[in-house]
Amino acid sequence: MSEQTNLFDMLDGDDSYMTPEAVALVKAAREIAPRLKDRAKMTDETGSVPVESVKEIIEAGLFRILQPKRWGGSEMDPRVFYKAQMALAEGCMSTAWIFGVIGVHYWQLSLFPEKAQQEVLADNPATLIASTYMPTGQATKVEGGYRFSGKWEFSSGVEHCSWIFLGGLLPKPNGEEGLEHTTFLLPASDFKIEQNWDVHGLRGTGSHDIVVEDVFVPEHRTQRTNNYSDAGCPGRETNSSWLYKIPFIQVFQRAVSSACMGALDGAVNEFRTRAAAHIGKHGAKTAEDVNAQMAVTEAMIASDQLKLVLTRNYQRIVDNAMNGTTMEVEERLLQRAQSARVPKICAELADELLRASAGAGLRKSNPIERINRDLKQARAHIANNADAYARAHGAVMLGLPNMDPFV
After folding, report:
1. CA angle, corner 374, sides to 389 and 41, nearest 5?
2. Structure pTM?
3. 3-state class of 193 per DSSP?
4. Would you give the distance in Å from CA 266 to the centre of its chain?
5. 179-187 and 222-224 beta bridge pairing
6. Residue 222: which H helix or E strand, with range?
7. DSSP string, 14-36
8. How confident is the model over 31-79, as pLDDT tens digits?
9. Which has the closest alpha carbon to 248: 224, 268, 213?
10. Of 149, 157, 166, residue with least CA distance to 128
């Protein structure tokens, strides 16, 4: 049986962003994926991505696709990053998940003041940063910065990281009323990891709780998350590329949905191999089952469509960043809703693949069972609440105000 053709690696409109270096990075991700697949069962059972998997991704330069060249990164179009993430996810969705949420942090660090960038990267430009952005941190203003405390859930891959981004709220500057989301940057010495990640899917992400007890965070290690102005992104003084002019949410919203497309492709690959050889107890061939035939084609159609939307949307995002223009709120909300729908669609189609695998397919020895759980877990992420973001877009289209502070 021939290998599945990955249409997303073929020409997709204006593909000028796929430079020879970009092609090599995506190829490297594809070469790593089979080894991630070999470790996927262990990753799921131990609740942690193996160190050797993280090391391979680091050594291939994949985490640093969005990092400025001045720090040794690739400073590439986000589409390259997400192509790499989807390729990794064909092998192991948990590994691809932490790749997504850790790798985008190089992009946000580039918006912080130069002093913060130096503190994190000067000794090791490949230093990894974890995150959990829920604004549960309590900050008290003191001379030079803040006293900071709090507890946060769901910090994926944190055990592999030396620094962390944590969410909190601070008063708006210049006497404006209200509070705004702020990202606080802390070294590993300032936070504790509560190892309590025991869930249905994405078990290997090790998304443990984080506790901070009254530490000092200097002013230069904070960044107003949704302030896209030059004043709100002082790192642009040294990182002047159009890449760092993209609004926060337009980079981050895809970090927690794009792995789902690669995972669905992985499920399709597993299903094709299994169905081509499987004969049931009553002598029926799975390959001849109409349910199996429909399930595999519908999954492949959806994967192709979802990737085309991602590519088209990022072309719009990149064009706006390069031209210094702002995308209309209606389009931003639509893109957010489209991103959030990805896990929902992929999970529903993986369900059909699992159903068409028949009774024996429900055994844990069938990788589609694990992929199915991973996709359902991804749907639970707040950024993947498909109904909420569809309603947010629909409300604006019907004349109501936009209520999403990230958009």
Report:
1. 165
2. 0.94
3. strand
4. 17
5. antiparallel
6. strand 222-224
7. S-TT--HHHHHHHHHHHHHHHHH
8. 999 999 999 999 999 999 999 999 999 999 999 999 999 999 999 999 9
9. 224
10. 157
